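Below is a filled-in request sheet from our internal design queue. Each sheet records the structural input a requester submitted and the sequence that came back. We keep these sheets so that new team members can see what a complete request looks like end to end.

REQUESTER: design group, bay 2
PRIORITY: normal
MODE: inverse folding
CHAIN LENGTH: 253
BACKBONE (tokenized):
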């Protein structure tokens, strides 16, 4: 299985509009971050997105201009679902299954009702919402996935476990039951917003604490803001086995 990081930035992306900090002025491609999303490619060449933010069209044109067989949604904040409408051109033939919490389903139906009415009207999205529950495995495009409970500020959201990969974004708190499930995993992807404390996202120190508890073989950090600093300067300071992911990075699981 392969994981492609489609985007690794926080809700503003990098560069941030109107900002002239060193990170936003950087010409290093590692410092150009679209909103966080990823693509799983299974051994039988099925493609499953994790989140579908407002940069989705740009991301898929850049890294995967092909079919999408399923979408896993962590939560309904705009930077994670703003590209759902753009799935419609990929869904005309056989539809696309979206897997998410029930509250996320409700939000999507309210904001994008025409994407889920199955009217058969030409050029309207054919998307199927599937409600999933914490720690209850399900099958997405042939892949076994377990939803992981995490807390985003005060909001319960989901991470995902599949095989030896765990993917967590936007978390402030990783509950003990999730740590137990991912302990000793091969590959952990987890959010680290910046160096200073934030009320709704882990900072780097908090992420490193979770990594120490979980003990994965390797870890990739995502959902960074421009306040994390320059990739070239900050990467060498990370402990062994931990890296900042960047847009377009592909890893084999």
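RETURNED SEQUENCE:
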């Amino acid at each position: 299985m392969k994981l492609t990081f489609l985007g690794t930035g926080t809700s503003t992306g990098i560069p941030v509009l109107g900002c002239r900090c060193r990170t936003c002025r950087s010409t290093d491609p590692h410092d150009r971050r679209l909103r966080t999303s990823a693509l799983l490619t299974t051994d039988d060449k099925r493609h499953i997105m994790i989140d579908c933010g407002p940069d989705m069209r740009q991301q898929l044109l850049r890294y995967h201009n092909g079919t999408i067989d399923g979408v896993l949604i962590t939560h309904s904040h705009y930077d994670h679902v703003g590209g759902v409408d753009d799935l419609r051109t990929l869904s005309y033939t056989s539809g696309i299954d979206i897997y998410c919490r029930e509250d996320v389903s409700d939000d999507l139906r309210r904001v994008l009702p025409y994407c889920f009415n199955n009217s058969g009207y030409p050029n309207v999205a054919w998307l199927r919402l599937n409600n999933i529950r914490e720690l209850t495995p399900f099958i997405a495009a042939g892949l076994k996935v377990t939803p992981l409970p995490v807390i985003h500020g005060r909001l319960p959201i989901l991470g995902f476990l599949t095989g030896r990969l765990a993917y967590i974004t936007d978390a402030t708190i990783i509950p003990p039951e999730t740590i137990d499930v991912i302990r000793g995993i091969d590959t952990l992807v987890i959010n680290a917003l910046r160096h200073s404390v934030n009320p709704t996202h882990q900072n780097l120190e908090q992420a490193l604490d979770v990594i120490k508890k979980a003990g994965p073989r390797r870890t990739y950090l995502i959902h960074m803001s421009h306040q994390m600093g320059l990739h070239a300067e900050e990467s060498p300071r990370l402990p062994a086995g931990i890296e900042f992911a960047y847009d377009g990075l592909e890893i084999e699981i």
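SHEET NOTES:
- The longest helix spans residues 204-214.
- The mean pLDDT is 96.
FILED BY: M.R.
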